[in-house]
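Sequence, please.
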């Protein structure tokens, strides 16, 4: 889901590229994003859904989900904006 989301968008908003992180664990690395509906946020929504449905999960599995959720949430830059996610049609 994450990698596929990179290719969405249209016109001047085509693609959801990574951006250099300005703080946190990944500061200085191109491992963040400046779109509130980009790949990391799509991944975050999915992980939250999986976590919420993980009824038979062990405490270790739940902790792993929580760590991944926190990691994805930390990758959004402070100046993040919404990008039109509608893919361009095939012509």
């Amino acid at each position: 889901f994450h990698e596929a989301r990179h290719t969405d968008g249209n016109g001047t908003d085509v693609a959801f590229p990574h951006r250099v992180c300005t703080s946190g664990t990944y500061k200085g690395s191109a491992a963040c994003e400046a779109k509130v509906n980009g790949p990391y946020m799509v991944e975050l929504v999915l992980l939250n859904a999986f976590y919420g449905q993980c009824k038979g999960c062990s405490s270790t599995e739940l902790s792993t989900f929580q760590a991944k959720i926190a990691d994805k949430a930390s990758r959004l830059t402070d100046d993040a904006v919404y990008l039109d996610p509608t893919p361009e049609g095939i012509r």
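The chain has a mean pLDDT of 89.
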